[in-house]
Specification:
- The structure is a homodimer.
- In chain A, strands 1, 2, 3, 4, 5, 6, 7, 8, 9 and 10 form a ten-stranded mixed sheet that branches.
- Helix content of chain A is about 20%, strand content about 30%.
- By secondary structure, the first copy, chain A, is an alpha+beta fold.
- Chain A folds into two domains: about 100 residues, Alpha-Beta Plaits; about 130 residues, Alpha-Beta Plaits.
- The radius of gyration of chain A is 19 Å and the shape is globular.
- The model of chain A has no long low-confidence stretch (mean pLDDT about 95).
- In chain A, a hairpin with an 8-residue loop joins strand 2 and strand 3.
- Chains A and B meet through helix 2 and strand 4 of A and helix 2 and strand 4 of B.
């Protein structure tokens, strides 16, 4: 059965997350059911590079999908976009997957962006896409504090209670904070992240940006490895999965 | 009764447009009812610089509002944002209006942006914010053709059948088309526009961008003054009201 890679954009707002769950509609269910007409009427099996939580968006999620039919990747993309309407899930491109390739296990780099709307008035056009923080944040202080988290560490202080990873050692390659007008963007990249790691890091950096904690605090939390002491888990709606990197680049058709 | 100016952002998707209508909820109704607690319990009277249609968004609509209470503009902004929840309407700033000032009749310049998503895959994150055109558009050709519309002309060819303006003479100061990645943005500015003028101009330029009409066509249409011959009225959802200009700048508090 041929395996394809999909490059997928979605608005996470109406979904319980990437992963199928009995409690509601997931992005995975939308894609698997959209593929049924190409898969002898049965939902296709998928796996994603990043299992995003409820409310988290994607601009470049990478998904593997196994389909009974052998067909041109462009036709697969168009068929999935037709059958997944009107859900806010769009297949931007498709590719035949290399042999033994897994969207999740072959992935060697993942990137996220977190958006904070830092102004007095609540969001209208950006509702559901940003974390609204009314008090002015010092983005430069957040950036300086963030640099203390780079490198290979035990990130237990920033993992979710429900995180199922066997160990908490991760290598953080990038954690940049910069202001863009009324917004503050946090860009981060690692081979992989723990559950809630990005949102816990952002919530912690926000405490520094508000002036409530010193620049040294995020690193002290990291060293303490106690997840009960970190800042709030920043809301899901500000987070977007940007990209997944693989040793051999995928040959997207579009 | 003191008059205030409001700088307003809204997502036009759920509204019948700016203007109050019996057929459904308008942005005007949301703001007027949100002001009632500050206006002896009665909805306040408002007027906008631009009466946007159903589905059209705003990043910088300017609205006048007459309120029985004299209060600090910041308090007015915060109160309107509190009482207008959960509708996607947000007052970014407020100001005491200069004497004899009208949001509509004092306005000497209005600016709009039109967004086209020009890619094969339908929008997910940008659904409701862009016109989706799947066939590649030549933005440079559209820009070149647009320049023929600048200046003072009778824009009858680009007005809506229902347009109530007494005459169709308008002065178009700016009509720029540029590509930004997968999107094409059309930026336009004039003292005032006819009903549907921006969307009719965009629909006409798209015909040039698709290569179906020559660069000279939009100007020929203009000169012909026959509105039945223009390109399609581009969908409302791609249009955003950006700004309104006045002879004396408003002193926004924020």
């Amino acid at each position: 059965m041929p395996r394809y890679a999909l490059l997928v954009e979605y608005d996470g707002t109406p979904f319980v997350g990437w992963q199928r769950q009995a409690s509601g509609l997931s992005v995975q269910q939308v894609l698997e059911e959209a593929a049924a007409p190409l898969n002898a009427g049965r939902p296709a099996a998928t796996m994603a590079s990043g299992r995003t939580d409820a409310g988290v968006h994607a601009e470049g999620q990478v998904v593997q999908i196994d389909i009974a039919l052998e067909l041109h990747p462009d036709r697969l993309r168009d068929a999935l976009n037709f059958h997944s309407r009107p859900h806010p899930v769009s297949v931007l491109a498709a590719a035949l997957a290399p042999p033994d390739w897994s969207a999740r296990f072959s992935c060697i780099g993942r990137g996220y962006r977190y958006r904070i709307l830092n102004r007095r008035a609540r969001p209208a056009l950006m509702a559901g896409r940003v974390w609204h923080v009314q008090t002015p944040l010092d983005a430069e202080a957040m950036h300086a504090a963030a640099q203390g988290l780079l490198g290979r560490h035990d990130f237990s202080a920033f993992r979710a209670a429900a995180c199922q990873a066997k160990d908490a050692m991760r290598t953080l390659d990038r954690l940049e904070v910069r202001r863009q007008g009324e917004e503050i963007h946090v860009l981060t990249e690692a081979r992989s992240f723990l559950h809630h790691q990005v949102r816990n890091m952002v919530g912690t950096l926000a405490q520094v940006g508000l002036g409530r904690r010193p620049l040294s605090w995020p690193r002290e939390l990291l060293d303490g490895r106690d997840r009960r002491k970190a800042g709030q888990n920043a809301p899901a709606e500000g987070l977007t999965f940007l990209f997944a990197r693989y040793p051999q680049p995928l040959r997207w058709q579009d």
